[in-house]
Structure formats: C-alpha cells, structure tokens
Amino acid sequence: MDNELIAKILAIIGAVIFLIVGIFDLINFNLLGTLLAIIYFGMAVVLILMFIKPGEPIPLNGYLILLIAVIGIVLALVYGNVLLLVGGILVLIAGILVITKK
C-alpha cells in the first residue's frame, strides 16, 4: 500500500472520530459544547472533502492536514478528551504521510 492510501484511511477515521466527538458535544447542550461541535464538524468536513475527491473541492495539502491535527490535539489536551486526542494523532500521522510522499 502506498502512503497516500494509508493517509486517506487514517484521515477518514480521524474525521469520523471528530464527527462522533462533535455529536457528543451537541448532546450536552450549552454554548461551549455547541461551538466546539461546530469546530469539530468543520475539521471533519474539510478532511473528508480533501480525501474523497482530492483536487476538486479542496486540494490535497499536507500542511493543512497538519494544522487540523494540531488544532484537534490542542483542543483534546485543553478539554481532556481522549477520543479527540486519538483522532488528532491519526490525522497527524496522515499529514506526515502526505508530506513525505512528495
């Protein structure tokens, strides 16, 4: 398997984890949970669009993937969410694989 396929699988798994965490934050209906859910949904949608059809809606950019991963990891560390930390680490590995492919 090449790096791009592995990165695609890891990033989509990370995006699904971001969606799950966002849904759990929406269940606890308060302002902070809603804002965090919007951030998680945005990160997941960007990742999914980037890997499902690379180049059409959003070009495949390893540095953007790393930025999304760092935001996810920082939010996980600030709010103590282990599931979000796992998703951020998976997306971080996907970003490194995309950058090293070139």
> Main β-sheet, in a few words?
none
Structural class: mainly alpha
Give the count of structural domains: 1
Helix content: over 70%
Radius of gyration (Å) = 13 Å
Please count the beta strands (DSSP E, at least 2 residues each).
0
Nutshell version of this structure?
By secondary structure, the protein is mostly helical. It contains 4 helices and no strands. The chain has one domain (3-101).
Description:
The structure is a single chain. The chain is mostly helical and about 100 residues long. It is built from 4 helices and no strands. The chain has one domain (about 5-100). It is about 85% helix and about 0% strand. Helix 1 (about 5-25) packs antiparallel against helix 2 (about 30-50), helix 1 (about 5-25) packs antiparallel against helix 4 and helix 3 packs antiparallel against helix 4 (about 80-100). The protein is elongated and about 40 Å long. The model has no long low-confidence stretch (mean pLDDT about 90).
Short key terms for the protein model shown above:
102 residues; mainly alpha
